Amino acid sequence: MLSIDFSLLAYGSILNLTRHVFVIAKIVSKSES
Q: Residue 24: which pLDDT band, with cuts at 50, 70 and 90?
C-alpha cells in the first residue's frame, strides 16, 4: 500500500514538473521572438 502511494506521489510530481518546464519553455520562446 505504501509503495502505491509513493508511485502516485512520484507520478504527480513528474506531471507537475513537466507542466512547469512546458510553461517556462513557452515563456522563453515568447520573449526570444
A: very high
Confidence of residue 1 (pLDDT cuts 50, 70, 90): low
C-alpha cell at 1: 500500500
Cell 502505491 -> residue: 4
Q: Specify burial of residue 16 (Cβ count, 10 A radius: 0-12, 13-18, 19+).
A: exposed
